[in-house]
Specification:
By secondary structure, the chain is α/β, with parallel strands linked by helices. Helices cover 19% and strands 34% of the residues.
Length: 147
């Protein structure tokens, strides 16, 4: 009787371990990384000009995130941008514009810095109370975009 209980318990633990490994694999394949917490920016445009949820966000030509939401307002459209590069520090003076590229006219949001980054900017935390919006772009900052 005791051997049967141990055997059934072992099978149950193996099933739970298998489910846990499967869940971890799914999260890994979807790119979920708890140490790499993305931050959000809000860009305001007059119109979206073909931008959709999932459109890539580029910084100096490198993909650093994607468009997470599109919210129409009375006089503008707000795009929720998710920046997935946690170590990326952008100066607070940037040009945000929609760019069409490729043969089929794929849209992207291009962020171009208009000034150099301050030397102490790398020490600032992008997410949290230690962020200084007068130096770098912080989580939740609003930007004005050009189409």
């Amino acid at each position: 009787m005791r051997a049967r209980t141990i055997r059934e318990g072992s099978v149950g633990l193996l099933i739970l371990l298998g489910i846990g490994l499967f869940g971890g694999l799914v999260l890994w394949l979807r790119g979920v990384n708890p140490s790499n917490r993305p931050y959000q920016l809000i860009a305001e445009f007059e119109d979206t000009a073909g931008v959709q949820v999932g459109t890539p966000v580029m910084y100096r030509g490198v993909s650093v995130g994607r468009v997470m939401s599109i919210t129409p307002r009375s006089n503008r459209v707000e795009l929720g941008l998710e920046i997935t590069e946690k170590d990326l520090r952008m100066p607070n003076q940037v040009l945000v514009e929609t760019v069409e590229s490729g043969l089929i006219g794929e849209m992207s949001i291009e962020i171009t810095p208009l000034e150099t980054l301050a030397t102490n900017a790398n020490e600032l935390n992008v997410v949290g109370k230690g962020c200084d919006s007068s130096v770098i772009l912080c989580d939740g900052d609003r930007l004005t975009g050009e189409t």
